[in-house]
Structure prediction request, 323 residues.
Amino acid sequence: ICWSEQGGWHRPRVQPYGPISLDPAAAVLHYGQEIFEGMKAYRHADGSIWTFRPEANAARMQRSARRLALPELPTDYFIESIKQLVAVDADWVPMADGTCLYLRPFMFAKEAFLGVRPAHKVAYYVIASPAGSYFSGGVAPVSIWLSAEYSRAAHGGTGAAKTGGNYAASLLAQQEAYDNGCDQVLFLDSREGKYVEELGGMNVVLVYKDGTLVTPDSKSILEGITRDSILQLAEDRGHKVERRNVSIDEWREGQASGDIVEAFACGTAAVITPIGLVKSNDFEIGSADAVAGELTMSLRQELTDIQYGRIEDRHGWLTRLDA
Ligand code: PMP
Prediction:
């Protein structure tokens, strides 16, 4: 779908996958004016195809659009775009457990000019790709690298928007994580370098021994839809949930004293990943051979059971795509 200042949203269509042409002066190539979403289509045992909380992705994309001075795509256009693509790609939605069709809606400034201002011409696309199970050998705890030097998002910046620039800012830190034998990078807040924010592509949740789940509350992290759903499921089970600042020292001391009993990361791609080890230049939390926590794994099971239609969708989170 295209957007222009005069014409609004127009020209919705499904076209064969392939390169798109852009003017070399297209604003996105120079100023990074773009946003995206990540979601999945799941095939249920009866063959029907569903997606999870698309209204939440649409709303987040609208918030991202506001922050990046892009036009907001209405929720019904967003959901319709996914339905139309899946109608064409239905055969590509795999059946096996844990597999899905990954969906990537994105929007960018395509107007050609070299001044710094919001673009007047914008394009919105959705692409899709079948995805295998994230953990082929069973869900294993990951090691994460605490970045001492780099911030992902500054106070007042674009951290809460799903925009490429945030990921660009995280790439060097992600490479540093790999170089230190870790799978993901953990970012602290940009002002004090003290509070836990999130991983490069996942939110963080800590489980305390009294059953309370604690997750960082920050204006510079992405509000994960997986996290929101998991915390809802935990609340349904009677767990207390706290969204508040949590310092890296609280995590370190809590895990050393046994007050914190589980830690996990969550996001659309991996659903839930237990965190085994946090490594930094100065200290380590946990251990690389830690076993996945019990609550972590049972919340993971419950959420994936809802997504794959194996248990009742009591919150009305699923939207059917092929009917
Ligand atoms: N934080 C970041 C930086 C991410 O890229 C993602 C993945 N979209 C998340 C958190 C988790 O968000 P969600 O659960 O909506 O996938």
In short: The helical segments are 27-31, 54-67, 75-89, 164-179, 225-236, 248-257, 294-307. The domain at 142-307 is CATH 3.20.10.10 (D-amino Acid Aminotransferase; Chain A, domain 2).
